[in-house]
Amino acid sequence: MNKVLALYINEMTKVSRKISVWILLLCMALTTFLGPRFFLRVTDTERYYEDTVISAVTKPDITKMRDSAREELGDPNQYVDHSTIRFTIQNEVFELFATYLNIDDSAISEYSTISCANSILSNYNFEAYPIEATYLSSSAYIGYVITFRDLCYLNSIPFDQRDNVWFQNYSRECDRLDYVRTALFSHDYGSFVKYLEMDGISNGLNSEVEAVRILSKIDPQGKFDSSESNNLLELISDYLQYKQLLSMNVDIGDTSNSYIPLTATRRVQLENSVKILEKQFEDHTYPSRATTISASAISFGMQTAQFFLVLLVIILAGSSISSEMATGSIKSLIIAPVKRWKIFLAKLLAIVTWIFSGSLVITLGASLSMGLKSGFSTLAPYYYVSGGHVHTIPYILFALLLFLANNIPLLVYVLFAYAISCNTKNTGVAVGVSTGLVLSNTITQVIIEAFSSSRWIDFLPMSNMYLTDKIFPYLRFNGFVSDVGSVISFKMPHSIPLSFSVTYLVILSLVLLLIAYDGFASSSFLVRRLSPTHKGARRSLFAPSPVSR
Length: 549
What we know:
two-stranded antiparallel ribbon, 21 helices
């Protein structure tokens, strides 16, 4: 193995002397570091890191809305009349001091705006709870305005047309208004949940109500802003959906309204997802809005830099043998007293080293860029379940493993380029064909998706190279809101077991290595025959035995 190490160091030294290698590495590093920041600027998400919030409905805003409505409607008191009316429900008499709004439906909006604005301007604490600054304030404000308007519609019905049904609806709206008013003016989550419970019963929104109830336990003081709360509500909704699917023993089919039987593998995944979310809710370590933005920015930077890594290693693999054959420098290796497989292995290890080194540079660069920009606390660890317990992988290690998983197709393309280089002894052909395969991924995906129902596509290399979602099935809980993606891979429309894909890739890699080594061995045979020191040669693995004349 000492000779393999020496050959490996020699190969790394030769490659490191190439200016093109360092140019690509520099482009890779710059793209990795600047890519996430470019993503933030283009998508206009930097506002989040400046601690800005959604434009607040301030006191002047509400005053302006009230004055505008008053100009349209005039004095609202001129439309108001009062009377005491009685209702008999189940032999019980209810007396109500009722209000009648002698107003058209088209003007009720202006009347309710004026009344709500006067109440808020007189009683609301804008300094303590700016409207729209938090999810609780904004949601309660909207609920208060809508419920008051609904009450005005009920009050626009003449006294003589009000029956028991009207009284029941009116009483219910008054209760809802009391709850939402308390939620708004007192910033009380408990009252807001009760308001939603009354609304959920009539509209069948029990799951949404349960989601807000869980949110109120995680954020009892209602400090989360709207974007942060909505992000958390999505996770809670997923959590409730997973539990419902498990209880029903079904999974979601091709459409959101269809169900299919729940498989054992999927059941384990759903159960683990529930455990992870419960742990995150308990420890307040769920992916925040900042975590999601950081994950998206880092993913963008790494994907962009991956282009240069692909270009680098395919060029190295495609020219590893052919360039030395063209320059004649391979003679010094072939005529040396070293077994051919050691030379072959040393060159292959050098290429793999560059893949790993480039992946490390890209991972560290993107993570450092976002850590310095938004804080290293936004770089969340990866959660997984083992032995029935939730565990985590530190972010840097997880990010590196994730990037390497995305580069599984790259390794296959490198072996393909290496095999072509060993057999054709032509750098242009090896690099060109391999690069063409990389760039044709999108077209290949469209073609294969057209035959997604056919099982023969399971045996194509493209169908088994994208393993990221299978290796890391819980990326959703690390801040990745969509597929990680890659410039050299794609996701197949139907699921293939991970064990099948791994077995397929191992066999494919061994076949490519065997083909590459056979080409290298035949190259060695040719060089030794042309060498003046030739004393014998190793034939190709697949060459026929020589026939004596």
